[in-house]
Queue: 2 jobs
Job 1
Amino acid sequence: QVQLVESGGGLVQAGGSLRLSCAASGRTFSTYTMGWLRQAPGKERESVAAISWSSSSTYYADSVKGRFTISRDNAKNTVYLQMNSLKPEDTAVYYCAAGRVLGLTRDYTYWGQGTQVTVSS
């Protein structure tokens, strides 16, 4: 079992930055692919970034490539999403997820409760 708790969301102006954190409990955190997904009102949940268990592979949706960076610290059981040059269309609830998956996917096993990110124009 893995429990995930996101933090770091909030309100930011367009062009600004936020750093999301996801703290995981469970001794197997370091064996899972971790991902960040988001869901805007009226839209499907989309995968925006993922990182392999060893950090050797990272994946980004085209919409965030070059602006967002995913990283993890297995010693701290934490995964991060650094979001720069934020746009109003990045407004969504952001979810952290864990699973034995590859690449950008929604098929994760464990999910956090989500954190709201709002980008004002």
Job 2
Amino acid sequence: QVQLVESGGGLVRPGGSLRLSCATSGNIFKIGDMGWYRQAPGKERELVATVTSGGSINCVDYVKGRFTISRDNAKNTVYLQMNSLKPEDTAVYYCYATGYWSGTYSWGQGTQVTVSS
């Protein structure tokens, strides 16, 4: 079984920056896509950004120009650099990884990001 552990969340003022990390461990054969979702209270979970095993990336429109996703295959880790943070970015951020062959999703426990003055 694959375990995912997020870190880097916290409280930041509007316009500030945070860098989230998600490290994988456990029974890893080959990981496919990795990325990040977020969920605010009372709202559905939504995709933020994704990166494939080959390095192709995509971010949703409302974070383009502010967030950058990257991965280090040697460390089995995915990152989310968040700049110019806004109050509406406040949410629990969850990382995920898929099995390259199975397509099955594994999820982290989530890390809280709060943007407030």
